[in-house]
Amino acid sequence: MPKHTTITKAAADRFKAKSGRVDHFDSIYPGLALRVSDSGRKVWVYFFRLKNGKVIQRRMTLGVYPAMSVEQAHHAWREAYDLVQAGRDPAAVSESSLPPMSFESVFEEWLKRDQAGNRSVKRIERRIRINVVPSWQGRLITDIDRRACLAVIDDIADSGRVILARRVFSHLHRMFVWCVGRGIIEVNPLQHAEKPGSETRRERVLDEREIVKLWSASEKLKPYYRDAFRVLLLTGARKQEISELRWDEIKDGAIHLAGERTKTDKAHLIPLSSAARSIIDKIERYGDHVFCTDTGRPITNWSGAKLTLDKHSGVSAWIIHDVRRTVATGLQKAGVPLPVTEAVLGHTSGSRSGIVGVYQRHDYAKEKAAALEAWGAHVMALVEGREPGKVVAFGGR
């Protein structure tokens, strides 16, 4: 049943449909309605009557909310309303005569609708805002063609950031596919286009001297980044797993991550070595997260922390993720079986993929604990200037 009210942004955000769809008519703008479906889709619609010998009831779509804001919808209504008063059919007038949707507004809606559950949404948003939005400021989403897309992507690649160019390509491609599905555009401008360059597989592993230098340089970091970095090195965990680590995820001498906290969407247990526990046990609690600022917010500025590490360590050409590869390589060099190393990292590919992954249910908890305990002892021997012993001896099991 249609409803009548004054439509504001707060009201538009609040509107929901339990089943089917509901038309919320704006009591101030005759014929303007926000059509809300139970899928969450919200569309501005204008209902009008044409008098051309006989009265004809018509309806036209103005745009999708929130890509078309309340203010833009009011302006679009005014344009269409004036045409009706002049005896013209606004639906027959070129779409360009009505306020179209900008790239920025559609981008905002895409983040909200399609990327809300993506753990990397902040990284994706930052990439687009920095590398794309400035070039397309104020442009209509319908005016962005393949040439415009490739110009932006090629500029990134030509600056030497080929991997970033490939990431931006993927983000835009997904967004345009979503736009087609939503009826915002007719064709994905990146359809059939090729990504620039090629993905270069990183093989950087920190050697023992670099481990010592970075450990020492971490003293120059804020305590929460220092401790987080050292726990990364001692566990081989993913950066985000440590950044967002909560106190309630630590119990029985291990980190217990639920599926929604891991890249693979599978629960993951990370045993804490004596070295890792000694760091965590000394941390003061400011909030729910283990590694957080004085305000209780989890740490996020790893790029700033790495700049400090670069400056004070002298280690170059490395990224934070190389720490994880370093742990994996160290365990492998020490004879830790591949399935155990992959279990430590929380990998589901490699030796744990396919049919093996279906039937192999051993969690390697004891083996992981032994491997990380030995790795922790090895790292501490290095940083304390002692002769490191063998990391672990599994006898080639």
Feature tags:
single chain, three-stranded antiparallel β-sheet, alpha+beta, 397 residues, disordered C terminus
Structure, briefly:
The chain is 43% helix and 12% strand. The chain is an alpha+beta fold and 397 residues long.
Describe this protein's structure.
With 397 residues, the protein is α+β, with helices and mostly antiparallel strands. 43% of the residues lie in helices and 12% in strands. The chain has 15 helices and eight strands. Strands 1-2-3-4-5 form a five-stranded mixed β-sheet. A three-stranded antiparallel β-sheet has the order 6-7-8. The longest helix has 21 residues, at 162-182. The model is unreliable at 94-99, 351-361 and 392-397 (pLDDT under 50).
Question: Would you spell out the secondary-structure blueprint of this structure?
Answer:
Blueprint: E1 3-5, H1 9-14, E2 21-26, E3 32-37, E4 42-51, E5 55-65, H2 70-85, H3 103-113, H4 121-131, H5 146-158, H6 162-182, H7 208-217, H8 223-235, H9 239-243, E6 250-251, E7 254-257, E8 268-271, H10 274-280, H11 302-313, H12 321-333, H13 338-345, H14 354-359, H15 365-383
Parallel strand pairs: 1-2
Antiparallel strand pairs: 2-3, 3-4, 4-5, 6-7, 7-8
